[in-house]
From TrEMBL, chains A, B, C, D:
GO terms for biological process: L-arginine biosynthetic process. This is N-acetyl-gamma-glutamyl-phosphate reductase. The gene is argC. It comes from the Bacteria. InterPro entries: AGPR, AGPR_AS, AGPR_dimerisation_dom, AGPR_type-1, NAD(P)-bd_dom_sf, Semialdehyde_DH_NAD-bd. Its main location: cytoplasm. It catalyses: N-acetyl-L-glutamate 5-semialdehyde + phosphate + NADP(+) = N-acetyl-L-glutamyl 5-phosphate + NADPH + H(+). It comes from Tepidiphilus thermophilus. Signal peptide: none annotated. Keywords: Amino-acid biosynthesis, Arginine biosynthesis, Cytoplasm, NADP, Oxidoreductase. The active site is at C149. One of its GO terms (molecular function) is N-acetyl-gamma-glutamyl-phosphate reductase activity. NCBIfam families: argC. It holds the Pfam family Semialdhyde_dh. It is found in: Cytoplasm.
Length: 344, 344, 344, 344
């Protein structure tokens, strides 16, 4: 059993992490920090955890995270980068569920996130926690940057095509739809029920922070070749789920794209390639760590349409973080993650 | 490990039962029957089960249910009563998730359900599967009538008050609200998304089939004394969940109702009495087998208001059925049911 | 045409009022104030109003409300009471959509609203704006207290029974369900989409501010006789709508309650008594000023169940305010309010 | 006043048409037909229409549609084509809200709709009812084919770009999201609340019937030049609304696309071009006949992203049909359609 701490457990990513960790057979949950809620029982803020999590929120001082084997940061952007050095020096391994260590280029990071990076020297060491791409590096990592939700769905959808150099790398389109929990648990007008229900809209078309992360990931997958992507995120009136609809043009129209995807993901425990002709629904992965993918060539043309769905709070956040933890500590990759999706 | 069969696994109760049974450590799922879908892989109809349930729907003949230790009927009303005798004679134990064996009075059953009962001789033997009331009888039962969803929430809410003879037994009110999955997976206009979303209505005010079941249960709890209840069910635009708001008048205004509830349910693994002043939310039990209850006395008067929430598909159906199975076969009562609610 | 001003048009009540006033043939909309948004075009905050409302939010100074014939206050509680005297003295008539003038008893008001009343001398003059009860007084009023949403649905539902002295006045129950827009447009965690969707809960069971308003109204209807009411509000995952389920015990079981309701509301333009056996849906009044009511006597007993639905933003707020305006200025009562409900 | 009949008023398009026609100052609603519901008051099936529509459903024989000036067909595909000839010969003008007369090519129609066309000789005469393109022809038409919902949103979004020959005509992408009412009021499992709520999926990726209609429309707009389009429709958990996200590549990167759209739609009463940088929400057009459009060039590149929203039941069906009626009979184009969107 490893000792685990969670920094910032008051958001949706945090509560989902606690749901998963509370039943993980190799995890002893030692501390959950929250400056604002210190002293409050976690299950008072999140009644769904009554009987499953007995901890109280602690101040960072009380939490003594340095005695943990692993600390998750489920904090806003800009927090983990300030604490990482100290904890790493104490021998603690880290998984940041925010964006602090996702971009290799510090200038780009500072431009998109609008702050000075507090630990640029760690960017090179940090491993991007997408197991389907970086499994071996994650296993050895001290510091893992857990991917964003959109980037997970989009990268897994384009991956076989770009690895096989099978599509034109300019003109990629990622039209993505997210449930409202992706916007977090912060009180804001635009995510109120009466604003977001029975409504659909795009947002951030001019530029969303996940764009550079996706582009960086796709270019790595394409072995450094440039990739040109248009990424449009949308808000859809559901709680959980991301549906990425991806468009690319095949360079070799004779390619069997179904076989390409099936082979690439044959051994992956959390990527499920659906039979040809399928339309994955977000609820088919609800509350699970799965990414389900279907591939289409409408009217048999050379445009390939990939449909990729995840639960933004699980494979898009907390579940992928637990998957990374399993890899880092040599546990079976699926340990604690054998969740049957909840449907309906 | 016991051999388990499921008759009629194409509804919401069925798919939820499969979700739970597929991970139950003492269950070997042998067969799932569906006349209409025979031959189809279960996971093709319910993609959420891909990778978790490998069976195909079988015809009743193929299924050879008589070799099972236990068969669940997740069928419409009127099916189990026709098959029960044959299976019981073959030594199979049965749990019916429909209403065939819920009412002890055959005349009343036939009046409310509008058909002739095919096995009235089994009504006396059948045990009403509400573990908090009938735990010992369930353990010995060959045939368990799994309670309805509303009756579960209402009986657990009134139980401590009636057992303690603490309220006037006339004038009880149960104002209940159900998610739409409670109406089943049958194609009907009134449960279409565009009909039921962003909408709220009562239904069945003149008389709902769960009324006699609730009344029978409450009268048993009240040791046979008559109980007069007004029961109004409502449809609320959510998928899962029942919220029962119960009203009664205390006969002894000095009673500590919070203590009464806390003590009565102290040892119950699936009933959670919330601290005084709480308002349980249906999502706090989503996808779990819990019933959470709060008790209020508005303005300190002698009206007691009980708020009782369950997930209609779990504690209100499939989960309670698994709980009953655990009791019947001597497994730990919570085996396979230690589910953390999914929230948000 | 009358000159109309709106104070505080940035909430849901405000935008709904603008939707209605923008097409009212006798209204010239002169000014909308908002301290925080002064200078912003109204249609920029509410794109639904693009092309219909050309005004900008103005500061109270710029707005020069004293030149208006009528000013609506669509402000939080505690604002109108500070401005009322000055405007009344300038000859302006007022409709307050908040609670400042709803309770006749200043002590009670201060206890429930937690502030000192700034204009207690106006409480006696203020007319409670429920036209079905106070039509003549409203027509003469300078200052109208527009009723709350729950109080409107509940009073209209109990009214015929109490006027006819047909039910026991102790033991009334009002189990009410509201859409989330009833909580306003303020950024708060508990009304976020990811908190309120697919969820149902009671709130304020210990005591909701609408309770004294309802009680006062019911007692007036009962000609001053005491009324004892249990009121439990619930939050339901829809945008608009209130469904009140009301319970009372008939004193004369031979009463024809259907006829009682039909006769009482025969001439009312905005109260629609449905045929016996009906279950009104909230969507059947969506975006309209109607209250639809059905009356039941389950199993023919002496408990009467009244189902009363309104759109909380229309008959429960802005629409009723316009109805009051029509009465105050001698316009046809339905002018500008002949709205066909939007369904589905 | 003109005499108007409606064939098939039991679906969502029908009830929306009745909502609009019931208040149209130049329309006398003579008859609504439904074989299955003949004799039932319309307002019994659609309680939202109580007090607004007093007609009963009539059999086609009773309805005597030949005495009408105009008949709307709000029927499934394949009905209007059988009745059109007879009514046209009787001097009645027709608007078909289904697809019977939308495609000029009878072979293509029969392939996509899987039936033999009963009136191919009328295809040439039929005018495609998109006023922004065919206003003059509509005014003279006897037979108008009202456009589909997706085709309306997509054509209005691409129109200025294709008219101006400003984008590459191969590689267009239309990623569209529809509310569930777009699937109609037929009882089907996949549109049940418990299936469609809190869920998102694509459908018909292999080929949706609106694809040939869109392609035909875009090619006409492009003056007959070929257009290559990938069209992916999605189901989103809301009642009303379509959001089309359109992607194209500019041929002249120096083009001011905002000005192009603003100028093209300057005089259009129902197309609203939003300020640069906007993200139209579907609710901003809810229950209105508006199409709101925003144009983006992410990161200033040569990909243009158009966001186009309509209410599928209004501008995507019944409202556009009324707009066409206004044109056909010389009424002001906006008569009866000056609807303020209902938001929230």
């Amino acid at each position: 059993m490893i000792k685990v701490g969670v920094v910032g457990g008051t958001g949706y990513t945090g509560v989902e992490l606690l749901r998963l960790l509370s039943h993980h057979p190799e995890v002893s949950l030692e501390a959950i920090t929250s400056r604002t809620e210190a002293g409050m029982p976690v299950a008072e803020m999140f009644p769904s955890l009554r009987g499953h999590v007995d901890l109280r929120f602690a101040t960072p001082d009380e939490a003594r995270l340095e005695r943990c084997d692993l600390v998750f940061f489920a904090t806003p952007n800009g927090v983990a980068m300030k604490e990482a050095r100290r904890l790493l020096d104490a021998g603690v391994r880290l998984i940041d569920l925010a964006a602090d260590f996702r971009l290799a280029d510090v200038d780009q990071w500072e431009r998109w996130y609008g702050m000075t990076h507090a630990a640029p020297e760690l960017l090179e060491e940090a491993v991007y926690g997408l197991p389907e791409v970086e499994r071996e590096a994650i296993a050895r990592a001290r510091l893992v940057a857990n991917p964003g939700c959109y980037p997970t769905a989009v990268q897994l959808g384009f991956l076989p095509l770009l690895e096989a150099n099978a599509v034109a790398r300019d003109g990629l389109v990622a039209d993505c739809k997210s449930g409202v929990s992706g916007a977090g648990r912060k009180a804001e007008v635009h995510t109120l029920f009466a604003e977001a229900a029975d409504n659909f809209k795009a947002y951030g078309v001019a530029g969303h922070r996940h764009l550079p992360e996706i582009r960086q990931g796709l270019q790595r997958i394409a072995r450094g070749l440039p990739v040109e992507l248009t990424f449009v995120p949308h808000l859809t009136p559901m709680i959980r789920g991301i549906h990425a609809t991806l468009y690319a043009r095949l360079t070799d129209p004779s390619l069997d794209v179904q076989a390409l995807f099936a082979e690439r993901y044959a051994g992956e425990p959390f990527v499920d390639v659906l039979p040809a002709g399928s339309h994955p629904e977000t609820r088919s992965v609800r509350a699970s760590n799965l990414c389900r993918i279907a591939v289409h060539r409408p009217q048999g043309g050379d445009v390939v349409v990939v449909l990729s769905v995840i639960d933004n709070l699980v494979k898009g956040a907390a579940g992928q973080a637990v998957q990374n933890m399993n890899l880092m500590f040599g546990f079976p990759e699926t340990l604690g993650l054998d969740l049957v999706p909840v449907s309906p």
